[in-house]
Design a protein that fits this description.
Blueprint: H1 5-8, H2 20-36, E1 43-49, H3 55-71, E2 81-85, H4 88-99, E3 109-110, H5 112-122, E4 126-132, H6 152-158, E5 160-167, H7 185-190, E6 193-198, H8 208-217, E7 232-235, H9 239-253, E8 256-260, E9 274-277, E10 280-283, E11 304-305, H10 307-310, E12 315-322, E13 326-329, E14 334-337, H11 358-373, E15 376-384, H12 387-395
Parallel strand pairs: 1-5, 1-6, 2-3, 2-4, 4-5, 7-15, 8-11, 8-12, 12-15
Antiparallel strand pairs: 9-10, 13-14
Helix pairs in contact: 2-3
Length: 396
Amino acid sequence: MQPTIDHATFRLGEKDALSPAQQRLEKQLFNFIDNQIDQPQTGLFVIHGDAGSGKSAVLEAAFHRLQAENRQHSARGTQQNYLVVNHNEMLKIYKQLAGADPVLRKKDFQKPTPLINRLAKTQQRADVVFIDEAHLLLTQPDRYNRFTGQNQLQAIIDHSRVVVLVFDPRQVLKLKSYWASDGLTPFLNRYPHASFNLDEQFRVSGNQSVVDWINAFTRGHLRPLPHDPQFDLQIFADGQPLYDRIRQRDQRGGLARMVATADFPYVVNHGTWYVTAGSLKLPWDKVNLTADPWALRPETLNEVGSIYTIQGFDLNYAGVILGPSIGYDPVHDRVVANPAAYEDQEAFKQRTDLGNLTPLKQQIILNSVNVLMKRGRYGLYLYAVDPALRRRLLAL
C-alpha cells in the first residue's frame, strides 16, 4: 500500500486534532488577524519552534480555516490570502492538498518571489500572507530567483496587511538566506506583533532523552546513547547494513528513506552522482520534475535524499549518512563541522555583509544535520564517514 499525503507530511489526518498548545496558538492567531487586518500598519505574527514541533501542521490548519471562512462569504468578505514557502518540494505538497480540497485553490500557494513581483507590479496589498519556513526567505538580492530586493520578508510585509510566519533560525541552510537568531528583531521593533512558541515534539516519537540527544549532537556535544522502546536509534559501522535496515522498514511500513549531508559531489543535469558510506554506494536524489514530492515516490528508496528534498517532511525511519564535513575533536570530545569538506557550494555563496563567514558556515552545516536527524518518527539510523567520529559514536 502506498503512503498517502497525510502520512508523509505536516497535514493532520482525519482522526487527528490540534494539540491544546496548537489550539491556543490558532485562537491567538485569529484574534491577532481580526485586530490587525484593518490597521494602517502591517501586523506580524511569529510562530517559533524546533524541527518537528508541529509548526507547519498548525499553519496549514489555520490557513485552511481562514480560506474556508473567506470563501463561505462570512464577515471576512473576499480577502486575498496566500500561503508562501520558498521550498519546491513543500510547495508541491501544498498544491496537492489544494487539488484534493474544495476549500483551497492551487493559486493560494506561492513561492515568495513571484508573489512579491506580482503584488509590486499591480500595486496591490494581500490581506493575510502565511509564510512557512520563513527562515528560508532570501536576505539578499538573487538574480537566479529574480529577486531584486534586499530582503523577501520586508518585501512581503510591504505588500500585506497581516503576515504570519514560521521561523526557526536553526533551519537556515544557505548564506543567501542567512538569519541570525535575533534576525527578526528589527522587524518586531517596527511593526505591531505577537509571537507563540511551540515547544512540543510531534514528529520524533522518542522520549525526551532521545530529543535531547539529537539536540546535543547538533550543537557539538556527545552524550551516552539513550534507549527508548518506542524509538529505534542505532549507530552503524557500515552504510550497507544501515541501508538494508531502511529497506526492511520501508517494506513493512513505508516511508523509510536514506538521506545525507551535502558532502558528496553533485552537479545538476550532469550525469549520476553518488553518495558513498563504507561499502554502500547509492545515487544522489535526481532532479524531480514530477508533481509528486521526493519522499512519496517509491523509486526514491534507491536514492539518497538531501536537505532540499526532505526538509519539512515526515519519514517513519531516517537513515542519515554524516559526510566528511562532520568530524570529531578528540581533545574536547566534540562534534565539529568542517566547511572545506562541504560540497554544497550554493549554500556558501560569498557575502560581504556578514563579517567572518567561517562560524556561519559551520552553523549552516550543523543546521543541516539538525534537519536530517529529525525526519524520522519512529527511528534514526546513523553512519559517520569520518573514522574518528564513527568510532566515537559506536563507543557511546
